[in-house]
Amino acid sequence: MAEEEQAGGPAEPEAPKAAGGPSPEGEHKARGKDGDDRARGADDKGDGGEDGGEAAERERERERAAGRFKERTGNPLAGEESEDGPTDLAAASRARRATRMLFDTGRDLNSFDRSYIQSAHIGDIHLRMDARQAAAGVRSGPVPDEELRRLRRVHVEPEGYLRLRNALRARRLLVLGAAPGTGRTSTALALLDEVTALAGDGPGEESGSGPRVLRVDVETDGGVPKLAGSLEERHGTGYLLELSLGKPGALPPDAMDLDGLAAALDERESFAVIVVTVGSAANPLLAGRYGMLCPPVPTQELRTARLRERLEEHVAAAGDEGPDGGTRVAELLARAEELAERTEIRDAVGLNDLRPAEAELLASLLAGHLLDDVSYEELLTGCRSLATGQAHEWFAGVDRALAAPPPAADGSAGRRPGTAALFHPVAFRIALAVLGGAPHSAVAAAAHLLTWELSVQSDPDHTPARPLFCDDPESDLALSRAELTDGEVEVAGTEVPAQLIWYRGAALPGAVLSEVWDRHFPVRGPVVRWLRLLADDPRPQVWMRAAVAAGELCVRDFDHGYAELIRPLAEAGTPRRRIFAATTMDQAAGHASHRKAVRRLVDDWSRYGTKSLRWTAAMALGYGNAAATTDDALDALARIGVRDDGEQLAVASFNVVRLLALPDGATVLRRMAEWTHHKREPYQDLGLVTTVRLAVTKVDEVLDSEPDSGLGDRGDWPLPLALAVAHPELVAPMADLMWTALNTARSQEVAMDALEALLRTAVRKDGTEWTQPGLAALLPALATEEHDRRRLDWLLRRMMKDPDNPLPDAQARSLWWLAVPPRDRTGERYQEETHG
After folding, report:
1. To which H or E segment does residue 830 belong?
2. Where along the chain is composition biased (Low complexity) (predicted)?
């Protein structure tokens, strides 16, 4: 060793084999002196018995073989990026795990959303379960006293209700903005009932002979300007108006109209509440002096109030009124609340908060089950219908205005409304269902792309306008039942802060996709084109999420999804599109109903497919669902890897490594060992390339959604070191494979580089421990003989003398002692000389 240092650097370690492929002797038992001597003898014979030309040609062939081998260990996405360019496989894997959680709620999309209870009798109550039908338009007329009394009994005040009431009393006029179905009308009626009661003797008493609260149909009664001149002469009246600003030709009242109405109301000591839907059209009204937002009612209080009402009605109908009846109601209410909090019920509902109609339906279902009028299965089905009903309401008849535009005032044909403004809300809901958990900016951009596709599909003769300043994030959240959370997103391998957007309910993404795909067939065309655009997006959090959602859509109609999405993308020229297709197939294979079809398809592609289809099949096999067993998956990957002189060896070996992150890792390592000892060189290369790729692959690049794998908290670890800690039984076969790669001529160089990369992960840059436990498990099994230790010593010395990134002496010494077990340290002269 002293002579090496005097010569200016470490000498190249001696290899047991000079050339050729690995032999079956590549086991621990064959790592001793005999194999070393055989290799030295072969080298000496070659140097002394052959002329210089033949030796030089042999050396050049060895270099060419090493070069070809190095190419095959490159990035599987090298067709899209340079070999040394960054890969987004780790970020894509993380995005896939996050996205699958949105659809993994115990809901088989083939069954749950097609089960509806149209109606049910609960005691003497007839309950409509298809409550998402279009309601009749509100007509002018008095609000019945019975309705006001019930409202006073069951209404739950939203947060900020007192502020709304004070504003109405002070200004006489209130423009109340909220999303449909959030209880805005009930809140408006409650406000009017309360403020007009001050003109009488108390709540429920009338002032004079006429009704206190009136509904006003703005369309038939001339709108806000004419209302000011037609108010009731009687004082203390409340007026409820609902403006529909989304209809063609609808214009919001201007500030002068509102001021005139407020003045007329003040003269008569009356009040008015104008209810509008939040959105760009209503923003000027809500930003004015009369505008305020109506917050939603708390879910818990709303459900409890509805439950108490239902149970009180039942007790009263049974004649149990009195003290015993109150006790009975309290007992039933406690049981209903306990039932509602069951995990199975909460998962079936799948909504973070309930709107009044949903709370009423859930309360009726819970009460009916407690009273033995609704079975448990009917209860679950009814709970699941809540999200389905919301999706149906969102998309039913959106473009009805385009089909029959109203005539103009002069009798001419009416002007069609702007398609972009009409389709943007529904496009945003679809984009959120596909990209939930992505940054808000990504969802908004995807929604605009889909808005364009929907507009062109609906009106191909006209280029749709693309408004540039119409976005209203608050309205998008309210109209889509969404929420923003502070989180992080990965950009070029670095996490940066971002605002992430989600549906407020795990059931909504699946319900939206099912509604769009099953009930609105003409929408499939623009949605498919849009998904293909997302497949080209460079951000993993976009294209991977879109691929998972596309798989859910294919489950709805696999024949259509295969023809329009899977097959075209599987034959695409870019790797990202092919990974998109593979992910889509794997997501479909996650459903038992489609697993057999996907496996048959992938098997056919691996045997008879084109080059692109074989590549896609390899990526699908790496997920672990595209073959019946691990051995079947490895057989198919071997067919792909050895075909055409190893042209697709890179992608085949990468997906073999991906299977190692699944529970059957021992089977994968056994097959890799069989390949390295195969008599045919293509199989040897497959085993060697996979071994080297295993050493340079990080856990995050291959980790699937396996909660018990033991790898989840080691995402930035090299996979072999993480496996060595989590699964010690895999250490010996991994060490055997690494030893074979290090002692085979064509793989020796890249295997040494891979080993160096592993050694440099022992500690982090700040000096804290990183993968040292994994190295402590793997290195002793890799360096069992003196020759192996000499090679490790040479590598450590090379790392210490690296001019760009020298390894500190203390770290080198620590790594050396990790490789040499305590039982082997005593009496070894070599260790004392080199690392003493």
Report:
1. helix 829-835
2. 7-24
- Between the CA of residue 431 and those of 420, 443, 614, what are the distances in Å? 15, 6, 31
Tens digit of each residue's pLDDT (9 = 90 or more) over 661-688: 998 999 999 999 999 999 999 999 999 9
Question: What confidence tens digit (pLDDT) does each residue in 162-213 have?
Answer: 999 999 999 999 999 998 888 889 999 999 999 998 655 444 444 445 688 9
**In the prediction, which pLDDT does 761 show?**
95
Q: Tokens 């596909």 label which residue?
A: 434
Cβ contact 111:380 at 8 Å: no
Q: CA 827, CA 819: separation in Å to the nearest integer?
A: 16
Q: Please list the residues that pair with 293 across neighbouring strands.
A: 177
Query: Which residue is it, tokens 């195969």?
Result: 678
Q: Give the pair of three-digit tokens for residue 704.
A: 């699937």
Report the candidate in 271, 282, 281, 101 with the shortest Cα–Cα distance to residue 177: 282
DSSP 709-735: SS-GGGTTSBHHHHHHHH-GGGHHHHH
H helices present in 177-298, as ranges? 184-197, 223-227, 255-267, 283-287
pTM, entire model: 0.83
| Number of helices followed by number of strands (H, E) in the chain | 39, 10
The pLDDT of residue 247 is above 70: no
Token pair 């062109």 is at which residue?
A: 456
What's the rounded mean pLDDT across residues 750-779? Answer: 94
> What distance in Å separates the CA atoms of residue 268 and residue 251, rounded to the nearest whole number?
27
**Of 678, 646, 720, the residue nearest 71 (C-alpha):** 646
Helical (H) or strand (E) element with 100: helix 89-103
pLDDT in tens, 268-321: 889 999 999 887 778 888 888 999 998 888 888 888 888 888 888 877 877 655
Apex 276 CA angle, 148 and 214, nearest 5: 30
Angle between helices 356-370 and 376-395 (to 10 degrees): 170
Q: How far is CA 332 from CA 270, 342, 348, 366, 446, in A?
A: 42, 16, 22, 10, 48
> Are the C-beta atoms of 694 and 657 separated by less than 8 Å?
yes
Distance between CA atoms of residues 36 and 259, nearest Å: 99
Q: If phi over 0 gives left and psi between -120 and 50 gives alpha, with beta otherwise, what is residue 140?
A: beta
| Residue pLDDT, tens place only, 523-554 | 999 999 999 999 999 999 999 999 999 999 99
> Pairing state of beta strands 213-216 and 238-242?
parallel
